[in-house]
Design a protein that fits this description.
Helix content is about 75%, strand content about 0%. It contains nine helices and two strands; from the N terminus they run E-H-H-H-E-H-H-H-H-H-H.
């Protein structure tokens, strides 16, 4: 078993867990849009003001949608080599799904109070926590190759871990930074774009090489 000791606990089919996960991700994405509304019966001036007021909600929705979509994609990549799940995988997976389902709350905070350090800190902490849960899940799946039809290649696994670690690091640093400058903390999130580009391109190359 590639030097790993097999420890069995309550195992099940990974497809069922992925079906549950897809449902939670889809519901969380849908709930993000519930705060994007305008009052009825507005006159032209009131409509224009209300439309301007809803712009922060649209930006927060877009950011959170992209964040959740990225986690969903990474979640499926992790389970590409997995056929069964055990109790540890299920517990970590449910923890991650619980944090995903909670995302509409920090998204609303960011939309309504984006200039407040507490709101930016809570949002950053929520994303960092999601990343940490998925990182732990990725490591567990990597170290338990017997759960898959084939072992996840070590270079691919290391790259996936580095990718998730970069998410945790960037958003964790943004938590204290938010109390110095909420705007600066939000701009700090942009650092993740080049980091994700590097790990994403490297992951594609490693997976392509593994299929040869």
């Amino acid at each position: 078993m590639n030097g790993h000791q097999r420890q069995r606990d309550d195992e099940g089919n990974a497809a069922r867990f992925l079906a549950l996960s897809d449902g939670v991700f889809a519901i969380a994405m849908t709930l993000l849009a519930l705060d994007i509304t305008l009052p009825a019966g507005l006159n032209p001036a009131g409509f224009e003001r209300a439309l301007g007021d809803v712009v922060p909600n649209l930006w927060s929705y877009a950011i959170s949608f992209l964040v959740i979509a990225a986690f969903w994609r990474g979640h499926h990549e992790m389970f590409r080599y997995t056929r069964e799940v055990d109790g540890t995988v299920i517990r970590l997976g449910l923890l991650g799904l619980g944090l995903i389902a909670l995302m509409p709350f920090p998204t609303t905070l960011l939309a309504e109070y984006g200039d407040q350090p507490q709101a930016v800190a809570v949002y950053s902490g929520a994303v960092a926590a999601m990343g940490a849960a998925q990182l732990a899940l990725a490591v567990v799946l990597w170290k338990r190759p017997w759960l898959g039809g084939e072992a996840l290649p070590d270079p691919v696994a290391r790259n996936d871990v580095a990718d998730l670690a970069s998410v945790v690091l960037v958003f964790a640093v943004a938590v204290p930074l938010a109390f110095v400058s909420p705007t600066g903390a939000k701009w700090w999130w942009v650092v993740l774009i080049p980091l994700k580009a590097v790990t994403g391109n490297r992951g594609k190359r490693l997976r392509a090489a593994g299929r040869r």
